[in-house]
Fold:
Amino acid sequence: MSNIRKVAELAGVSVATVSRTLKTPDVVSPDTRERVLAAVDKAGYRPNLMAVQFRSRKTRNLVVLVPAIANVFFARVISGIQEKAQAFGYRVLLCNTLGREEVETEYAELVHAHQADGVIQLRAFNPFQEASLHGEGLPPMVNACEVLDDAPCPTISLDNRAAARAMTEHLLSLGHQRIGLIKGPQGSPLTRERIAGYEDALRCAGIEPDPSLLCRGNFSLQSGYAAATALLEHPDRPTAIFCENDEMAIGAIQRIRQAGLRVPQDISVAGFDDISFAAYCDPPLTTIAQPAEDFGRHAVEMLVAVSENLPLPSRHLVLPFELVIRASTAAVVR
Amino acid sequence: MSNIRKVAELAGVSVATVSRTLKTPDVVSPDTRERVLAAVDKAGYRPNLMAVQFRSRKTRNLVVLVPAIANVFFARVISGIQEKAQAFGYRVLLCNTLGREEVETEYAELVHAHQADGVIQLRAFNPFQEASLHGEGLPPMVNACEVLDDAPCPTISLDNRAAARAMTEHLLSLGHQRIGLIKGPQGSPLTRERIAGYEDALRCAGIEPDPSLLCRGNFSLQSGYAAATALLEHPDRPTAIFCENDEMAIGAIQRIRQAGLRVPQDISVAGFDDISFAAYCDPPLTTIAQPAEDFGRHAVEMLVAVSENLPLPSRHLVLPFELVIRASTAAVVR
DNA sequence: GTGAAAGCGCTAACAT
DNA sequence: ATGTTAGCGCTTTCAC
Structure:
């Protein structure tokens, strides 16, 4: 492996000149530049990034903490992250945390270990423990998708409460009075916000929310299926079910079909996220579209800004959602 | 930020002793060890990984080249990679290449730039150009999922030809004689192998493959939908359609439904991959199950072995597939 | 068992 | 415009 010294010898210049030619070409004379570049080429020289990063204390690596990479929504977010990171010349260190705090904490530590410049956290958890900070400030971090209530860092989120309210109002407008809700995992602010929006809409319509119509899920197809089972067994069955993501809605639809009921004629079903499969379900799913890739893109932009001390246009971005009405929801028949 | 020197001072030892305590604890005396560890704790010391890697010429980073992270199958593969990498103490540098060779080449170069120890390529393309190798041998690389015919590195693959043959035989056994095939993108060995398996089965059954029953797709829902449109317009319509992945099968099913036909009564549809959605379609999809996570796990194991010069049990792993028969395929009615 | 010291490849301050 | 040189934080001989 050739190094900068070998190139310097070949070009008959000093290592400093080689370094300058590569970093700030306009500061060396055209003909030395040419000679150096020729030597670089001849030697097949590639700067040792380890040395560069070590020396300059910048890695251009970003740690991305993703709760579940197999989740279609997060896969889209990561696409956006990847795209922007590449454009900025940053690399992505991916960690599929499965929501395990110790894994998140461990990976976040890579910033302290000078292995990465910052962290993008896609879950509502601060991976930097007070204790491990040793009095230093919070390293560059951005919290996107599911954000902490009092995030100590920039955030990119959706108005989940308003979105859930919009969906519930859509169902109410179709005449549904008993609307089941399949929630996400406990303790998640995202889920809490969506429940609040759902209840807002009901109360505004003069309907007192019935806690027995809420079922817990975990954003998987299976959990949607299981929760729907519970809802179908309810003595006073709902006429519509709002699921907190599309996977659970798809699971629920299958369960409803298996019970010999039709969607939407007997039960309306709505999802959240608008994953690609939502449009290809039978029936196509009414859902809330989120700009998944944009979460990722903005997260990178903000993180780079924070880590390079550039001005941040706004610390808390809220991205728009869209109610997408397809065929899985219809007017209630009496 | 504290460094090894500060810890050495605190403990009243030399930096060498601190380094030894951390790397090879059993070579220092118990009570120095204790003092050093206490100092490490007190200083909140974390080794600078940049320096460690620079010095030891090992990064424990792996570059993963994935054609499309939003593809559910690859998301599962990455899960497996992530899991094993973590277990081995390696980190994953993810690159969503979208099949662009220049991006793959650029990321693979990170190995030469000492930013990663090896590359896992999930597509049939060698990102190390002869020219850029400058006479050096191929860096540690493993090729999984879709593998090169004459891969210059270890591979993990599926017997795609046998799998496609098994699926086609299943359809033949149901009485289907005209079987459409929705292929993947041009030039992919994986697609070529699956076409070969499909043709093997037909010929064995005494049926000459009809090229007009082959349609090109690109593994997306949309492309399955579009290809099905073409197949439905065929003057002598197929009674079954075999799709080279589940997404295209789901797209095709929707198109068939929109044409007023039923699956499987009018047309049988089969997929490939057994993604989670396959079991939750309507009707549930007959498909070929692949151990997606295992591709990732084995890829990491093999790459680590190659990069650490450990013996490799076998250079070309072939993982098993399974024909999963669900409700989207049925006997042809005449 | 421990310390002194060289040096990994590069950048940047300073000198020319 | 270019060269000289110190040093980033760590590991690893080589002495003792």
Remarks:
- Residues 13-17, 20, 27-29, 32, 51, 54-57, 114 of chain B lie near DNA strand C (CB under 10 Å from a C1').
- The radius of gyration of chain B is 26 Å.
- Chain B touches chain A through 55 residues (CB under 8 Å).
- The CA atoms of residues 175 and 334 of chain B lie 10 Å apart.
